[in-house]
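ping. complex inputs:
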Amino acid sequence: MLSIVAKDIHVEFPIYDHHMRSLKYTLGLGQIAKGLNRFTAGKLNVGGQIGTGERGRVVIKALDGVSFEIQEGDRIGLLGHNGSGKTTLLRALAGIYEPVSGTIHASGRVVPLFDLQLGMDLDATGIENIWMRGKLLGLSTQQIKDALDDIAEFTDLGEYLYMPIRAYSMGMMVRLAFAISTAITPEILVLDEMIAAGDAAFFARAAARLKSFLSRTGVLVIASHSMPMLREWCNKGMLLERGKLIAYGPLDDVVDRYERAAAP
Amino acid sequence: MNACADDLRIGICSWQLSQFLAWQDIKQRYRRSTLGPVWLTLSFGIQMLTMGVLSSFLFGSSLERSLPYVCAGMLLWFLITQMINDGANLFVSTARYITQIKCPLTLFLMQAIWRNLIVAAHNATIYLVVAALLVVIPGPGILLLPLGLVLVIICLAWVALVSAVVSARYRDVPVMIQNILNILFWFTPLMYFPEQLGSKRFLADFNPFTHMIALVRAPLLGGAPSLNDWLAVLALTVFGWAGTFLFFARFRARVVYWL
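pong. complex structure:
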């Protein structure tokens, strides 16, 4: 049974700026930041809260006491303004950021897909890049061999697969990256608006493949600003604001709340 | 603690992935060059010829003695310094991967080890040529060479891992390390023999690199490393890893926040 349970997780980013670090406290900037934070608290919806960490350094509170449970079959759309903590939450789900306090436990293998072109080398051939991406996605040698034909067929790149991808057009490159990344069958899939990139004509073609990819996964968590996309793929919504989880439930309710908050 | 042990275990167990990534690094570096990785061998060969001749001229030993000595020593010296320098840049240079996919940090350490072993293997062909031309015959001590090499690598691994973690937080450290290594080059018997230091021999004896290099160089040249060399490197490895484990357990999860 796949699930993710998060209990009161806090993620804080220390701000290191080597000019500021020594001067910051002498100039009292920490205090100014605090004051600014109080001043903007009611007005701005952008960014995590600026605060002071345990040893008095300035930190951004990207996630501030977030708790939830995700069950198998859940398709969760993650909503929130820029800097509300969506990406941080996705990365915490994937185990990339270990929370400074609180616990997050996933039963099932979490596969994050943020940058579809991670690890791709312009001077390597299409085939070599399939191997590289496949290995990074955790596929075995046999699984990659099995996926090769499928990828070749979908991308329709033919002879181009044996050429350095430097020779590809942008569209061809996106097609290749997309085909490799959707060749896997993840238990828990974590996506960050990947579908927003690329041209419309390609996505008409890719829609079927994407649909089968997303329906194969046991749990889906996707961050997006696109309501039509979330309505198509998700059954639940999660709304973050300034690092706090303020709504979690059926998608329509959460979208309502998000749109109401966005209205002036 | 457990998470730290897991990181090490999974990092070591995914040796196939780290080896694959290391080969990709080498391929990437020499793509579109006609000679490819042969450049590694070639540039090492030219450097060794220069240094060997210079050493025999400066320090007054015959070329037959100094050339294999310099070549074997430098083979190790490049491995050591490149491992530590790569270590210092390890997490900063792989930040894109670390912040986007979940993988043990030691995977990248393993990648650096493989990469440097591949480079060392290319350089080793030069030593083989030199040894064959000058008829340097290794004695029975050669049987212990693999053990010595493995011990040196394990020891370097912790130095690289600690440098990697510290450098992720303090970005001055890689430059500092590079400078320290540049200075240590002169205090390591590479161009000269330790006995040529005379009354200042302790300078070489207190340098851990002297012992690491001896573990591999001595058997290659037909001798055997001293018990001192073995004990020094063994102690450094055991105590170093014990400390590194505690250090890594404390800071492992923080690294990604520093990138």
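The longest strand of chain A covers residues 58-71.
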